[in-house]
Amino acid sequence: MKFLRRFRYAGVVLSLAMMSFSFAEEQSSPHSLSGAFLNDLRLIPVQSGGRIKPFDEFARETILALTGSRSYQSFDPSEMLISMMVNPKAWSQEKVIRISIPEVNQQLLLDPSRKFFTLEELMKNNAFLQYAEGIRSNGMASEQVTSTGVNAVSGKKDPRSEELKRVVDRVERFQGLVTGRLWAITPPKDKAQDGAWSTLADAMASPSEQSLAVVGMLKSYLEGNVDEFKTNAAKVRHSIEDSMPGFEQQKTKLLAEVFYNRLRPFLQAMIFYLCAGLMWFFAGKHAFPRMMAKFLTLAAVMVHAIGFGLRCYVAGRPPVTNMYESIIWVSLGVMLFASLLFIKNRQVVLMGTATFLAGLALFAADSAPMVMDPTIRPLVPVLRSNYWLTIHVLTITISYGAFMLAMGISNVCLYFFTRAAKEGESTQISQRIALLNQLAYRALMFGTVLLAAGTILGGVWADYSWGRFWGWDPKEVWALIALLAYMAVLHGRYTGWVGKFAFPLWTVICFSTVVMAWYGVNFVLGVGLHSYGFSAGGQAFVTGFISLQSLYCIYVAILHKKNRSLEAHV
Amino acid sequence: MLKKIELLLEKIWSILISLKLAVLVIASLAITLATATIIESSYDSKTAQYYVYRASWFYGLLTLLGLNILAVALSRLPWKKKHIPFLMAHAGILMILTGSWLTYINGLDGSLRIAEGEVNSAVELDQHVLVFKRGEEIKTTPFEWLPEPATRNFKPINFEDFKVRVDRYISDAEAKIQFVPSSDPTLKAAPAVQIKILGAPMGGAPELWLWAGDPGWASQKMGLARFLIRTESQSDLSVNPEASGGAPEARFDFVVSKNGDLRFESTSIRGEKQSAKINLASLENKEEPVVINPGWKMPIRVQVKRFVPSGVNLTEYVPVKVKPVGMGSAIPQPAIQISLIKNPASKLWLGLGDRADFTDVDGAKVSIGYFPKRVILPYALRLKQFEMKNNPGTMDPAAYSSYVQVVDQIQKSESELNAIPTHHITMNEPMAERGYTFYQASYIPEAPRPTTTILSVNLDPGRALKYWGSILLILGSISLYLSKVFQGKKVKEPVAV
Questions:
Q1: Contact at 8 Å (CB) between A441 and A493?
Q2: Can you list the alpha helix ranges (DSSP code H) found in A316-386?
Q3: Which of B100, B478, B492 sits opposite A449 (nearest CB)?
Q4: Using alpha carbons only, what angle is made at residue B109 by residues B104 and B111, rounded to the nearest 5 degrees?
Q5: B270 touches chain A (CB under 8 A)
Q6: Which helix (H) or strand (E) holds A391?
Q7: For the residues A451-471, what does the mean pLDDT come to?
């Protein structure tokens, strides 16, 4: 089998370092030397996925691809990669390869209760090998797993075959890593057109300065010589940097990316937001907790904004491409609109709702790296270098932030209706309801203006680059549906059809059109010209959210109706 | 009577100016559109267009929205200063609707394919026609795309005295090409050969038919090689070297002699020639496959699978089993099966872009084609070069663009052509020329590199209205918002909960 042979070859390539050692014993208690000795290693420039990135990021992406989570045990990603390269044998017995759908386990006759498998297990699995050969001979590129998982009968994505492809991709990555095919180390001497770097595997045939340095570094890692490893890593780093054309422009970007990775700004912002949310809700009128809440909110927004800025800087563009990036932007939008409203109405409930929403959104973005890919990728051609497009996407998605805030406020408003139903309608509660109605209305106004503007800007951009203003593409249609839905509510409010209770209720219901435009078109419908944003996963989470929300609405509506009829009797 | 009409008009007016109608129309539009996207997701965009976006009732709904807005605006007469934001926003919507209507009525949205070194001025539209040709006489009749079901009763189409009937229709068809011997004198017969190309660099073993009856069928290009069939009487000039943009190409010709013998002549890129007679007896016995080595540098072999000395095109179409998804994959095209009223036995399949030749009773040559509708531009475009760049270190396309020239007459000498300025059309930089705008839309994937560009061509008389309308709508809604904020009473902060 081709697969297995290739894997053996891996051993040959790096056997100069391996000899007869086996680190299996040592691996059982992973020795992480960690800390400063990895600094140079993390900063080694690598060409991968269409851009230059630091080794740290390359390692994180590889580990995310293999394991489906951000880290494996307590390993530093960079060190783990080096360890895998010098000791493929031991690592092929580690359970690092993820299979996330139990049906795939069944198809491969593997234990369905397990999520992680060793490379060796998969390489001994005939069903898997046959499947992998099939994918290879069909010429499906492993880089484009998401775009090729198509069910042959319905033309729709079949989660099982898609996951199988991903598993094959994981195995290929593992093998690519240990054979040196994955790690591009030598920049081309002359500025060749596509500028592809040659990999460690290429360099084995004709050693380059960089490959010799890499071998030296791997050897010192194998020997466990920390000082030598440090010197060698620095040597690798500098020899690649020196041969990179235009390194000076890249230098700070690489540093910034390592900093961004280690800071994990959105995780921190999430923690701050959630703490702030709790503070706001329990602060009441007390000065000190309110102070704390304000302080925490400020800290959260700062970290959030810094992370956003860093990401823009590293990617060289605003985050416009995928779900992960848009959640970051939308939650920042929630805070922006809340702050704007806060200027006029200094309401604790406003900030409390906003921080809570932002925290939950960031939590959702952070919790599922397999569904929402956090890696920075180059843009597809259609999205590249266009001013209007950037404005269009940023405008439309930030309007989602306003709608999200309106949804949050309306939910709180509905909560007060349940209290009114239980405790009777005091002036205090009806004042609250009036206030929350007003706030939700304001937020909706922000949202509708921005959504209208963003949709039109999308038309302008489509006209500019495709030659038509409007083409009934599902993504644009759903943006329009969301706009129409909110317009119907706003006009209904104007006519008096939609009252104090119906307004928050409809605002909450209409948010599902935003969910559809934002998530559903790409993840559920999966058709249309915006295919560069298509992906799969998260259905359970989103359906769960929608059904919880509907149950809440139904519950509140029933309670409210009962209350009304009671009042009528009295 | 008059009073009654007056009452009725008043009633209609009072409905038209009601905001409740607006709410209903907006809500039903939203529901309609949601349904349309679900149709698109379960079938395809053409079906959604047919049932919703291009359906007359949908235009009716949009018109109702327009009338409602107009009526509401007029009902506010005489307008006061406070009405300005409201009027701006709603006039904006009316302008966008009117602009879209103008685009729909007078606009043009098509595509233009040009191969490197070639000139084209025929824009293909997304509408289909049947074209009848007898001598100099040409007639066309629209035959638009329809969604499934395929079994429909079509009326006979009369081209003067020549009557044709569409018997079957397939919305998304896939060709099963076959050339068979036939004794039907109304159909055009010519030598045909079916070959299989082994060892192709792109993997797989593509099979193809060559047929001497039509220039489009007689020559097929695969990568750097051209495969061709011709009779001895046809000269070698049928393919000129410029057709490939001057790039060197390997040639593999099947030559049919008068007495029905089949010979091949191959020419490599460097000009080495080979020729031999093909053993037709062993081809018929099917004892062992007839495989020819063309003697090229690439390890390509040509297997002759079938030879029909006098064959007619009886290609059949079947519904596609798998609809391709995603950008760049070929969109399946419709196909029709037609029969002549005079001779109902001769049924023929035509895929979109196909043409069938008949001999009429009086011996006149007649052809019926099923084509996308074409519009000829007042000038032509010449593709100088197509350029594609990949992301560094990957095979993902990063950008593609076309270098084109605007040519007024087709016949130009090389030096004259070089003097014409070149425009660079990229993904985000279209070219405008005499009212039409040309956009880089796509390309035809080819190895080793694509050389045929697909530009989208657009003429939009409603553009200005839509843009001004959009500006009004946005400014209007912002000022509506601001006026609400400043008018709005500040809500007193209630006691903390």
A1: yes
A2: 323-344, 348-367
A3: B478
A4: 165
A5: no
A6: helix A387-423
A7: 85
**pLDDT tier, B241 (very low <50, low <70, confident <90, very high otherwise):** very low
Per the CB < 8 Å rule, is B392 touching A196? Answer: yes
Q: Indicate the residue of A384, A481, A492 with minimum beta-carbon distance to B30.
A: A481
Q: Which residue of B has its CA nearest to A281?
A: B497
Q: Kindly tell me if the per-residue pLDDT of A565 is higher than 80.
A: no
For residue A191, pLDDT over 80 is answered with no
Instruction: Please provide the DSSP assignment of A58-85 as one string.
Output: HHHHHHHHHHSSS-STT--HHHHHHHHH
CA nearest A471: which of B102, B109, B467, B466?
B109
Residues of A in contact with B38 (CB under 8 A): 525
Half-sphere exposure (CA, 13 Å, Cβ side) for A442?
Answer: 26
CA distance A225 to chain B (A): 34
The answer to whether B130 touches B370, Cβ cutoff 8 Å, is yes
| Mean pLDDT in residue range A28-35 | 46
Q: What whole-number percentage of chain A has pLDDT above 90? A: 29
Region B152-175: what's the mean pLDDT? Answer: 82
**pTM of the full structure:** 0.81
Instruction: For residues B140 and B131, give the distance between their C-alpha atoms in angstroms, rounded to a whole number.
Output: 4
**CA distances to A57, A504, A528, B66 from A475, in Å:** 32, 26, 7, 24
For residue B311, give both structure tokens. Answer: 């064959």
Residues of chain B with pLDDT > 90, as a percent, come to 24
The answer to whether the CB atoms of A194 and B497 lie below 8 A apart is no
Does A194 sit within 8 Å of B390, measured CB to CB? yes
- The distance of B129 to chain A (nearest Cα, Å) reads 23
Subunit contact B30:A485, Cβ cutoff 8 A: yes
Nearest to A285 among B30, B399, B496 (CB): B496
| Partner-chain contact B23 A527, CB within 8 Å | no
* Alpha-carbon gap, residue A424 to A461, rounded angstroms: 53
SS3 of residue B337 by DSSP: strand
- The ipTM assigned to this model is 0.81
Neighboring chain A residues of B44 at a CB cutoff of 8 Å: 527
| Residue B431 β-bridge partners | B438
- Considering only the beta carbons, identify the residue of A156, A428, A525 that sits closest to B494: A428
Q: What is the pLDDT of residue A262?
A: 87
Q: In this complex, do A50 and B396 lie within 8 Å of one another by their Cβ atoms?
A: yes
**Distances, alpha carbon B288 to alpha carbons A88, B118, B279, B304, in Å:** 49, 42, 11, 11
How confident is the model over A340-361, as pLDDT tens digits?
999 888 888 899 999 999 999 9
In B74-103, the residues whose Cβ lies within 8 Å of chain A are 99-100, 103
Q: What is the pLDDT of residues B182-233, one digit of tens each?
A: 777 777 888 899 988 887 655 556 788 898 888 878 888 777 788 888 888 7
Contacts of B486 in chain A (CB under 8 A): none
Chain-centre distance for alpha carbon A498: 38
Q: Do B392 and A50 touch (CB under 8 A)?
A: yes
Where exactly are the structural domains of chain A?
2-243, 264-378, 382-570
pLDDT, residue B201, reads: 58
Check: CB of residue A525 under 8 Å from CB of residue B41: yes
